[in-house]
Amino acid sequence: MRMSRLLGSLAVAGLVAGIVMAFGVAPREVTQGNVQRIMYLHVPSVWVAYLAFVVVFVASIGYLAKRADAADWIAHASAEVGVLFTAVTIASGSIWGKPTWGTWWTWDARLTSVAILFVMYLGYLLLRGMIEDRERAARYSAVLGIIAALDLPLIHFSVYWWRTLHLPPSIVKPGAATMPPVILAALLVNFAAFTLLYAYFVVTRVRLLRREAEAMA
C-alpha cells in the first residue's frame, strides 16, 4: 500500500512537471506549430506500451518456467496497462496525424503493426476472461503474451524496412538524439512521468489480483 501511494504521488508530480515542460518551457515547433506538443503525450505512451509488453513477455516466460502466481499477476496487470497506453498511442497519433499528414489513419507499416499489437493483446485479455480454470488461463495467456511481443521489433524497425509516413526514431537509435535539447528535456520528463504512472497502475492492479486469488482460494 505504501509503495502504491508513493508511486502515485511521484506520478502526479511527474505529470505536473511534464505538462509545465511541454506547454511552458518547450518552444513552439516552427513547422508544425502547437500541434507538435501532442508528441509529449504520444511518444511517452508508445514507450510505456513497449515497456508493458516487454514485461508481459518476461513475466510470461517466468510463469511458464516456475508456475509462480506473482509472475502471472504481473503479466496480467502489465498487459492491461499496455492495452490502455496503446489505445492512447493510436488516438493521439491520429489527432497528430490529421493536421500533419492530412489523414486520421493510413495503413502504412508502422500503424498497421501497432494495430495488430493492440488486437493481439486485446485477445490476450479476452482469453483470460473466457477460460474459467485460472491455471489453464494463465498458461494459455503466457504463450500468447510471448508470441504477441514478437511484434514489437517489427513496429520499431518498420520505418527502416518499409516506406512509411513516420520518420525514423529521434531518440531510440544509434548516435545522439536529433532534436533540440530543450525539447528533448521536456520529452524525457514526460517519459519519467509516464513510467511512474505505469508502475503505479501495475503495482495497484497486482495487489487487486492477489486479493482476488486469495478470496477464491
Describe this structure in words.
This protein has helices at residues 2-25, 39-66, 69-101, 109-130, 134-149, 151-161, 181-216. By secondary structure, it is an all-alpha fold. The chain is globular. The model has no long low-confidence stretch (mean pLDDT 90).
What's the layout of helices and strands?
Blueprint: H1 2-25, H2 39-66, H3 69-101, H4 109-130, H5 134-149, H6 151-161, H7 181-216
Share of helical residues: over 70%
Instruction: Tell me, briefly, the overall form.
Output: globular
Kindly provide the radius of gyration, computed on alpha-carbon positions and rounded to a whole number of angstroms: 18 Å
Number of DSSP E strands: 0
Number of helices: 7
Strand content bin: under 5%
Structural class: mainly alpha
Instruction: Write the element-wise H/E pattern from the N-terminal end onward.
Output: HHHHHHH
**First-to-last CA distance:** 22 Å
Biggest beta-sheet profile: none
Poorly predicted ranges (pLDDT <50, ≥5 residues)?
Answer: none
- Mean pLDDT across residues: 90
Keywords, separated by commas or semicolons:
7 helices; 78% helix; 0% strand; mainly alpha; 217 residues
Briefly, what is this?
With 217 residues, the chain is mainly alpha-helical. It is built from 7 helices and no strands. Helix 2 crosses helix 5 and helix 4 packs antiparallel against helix 6.
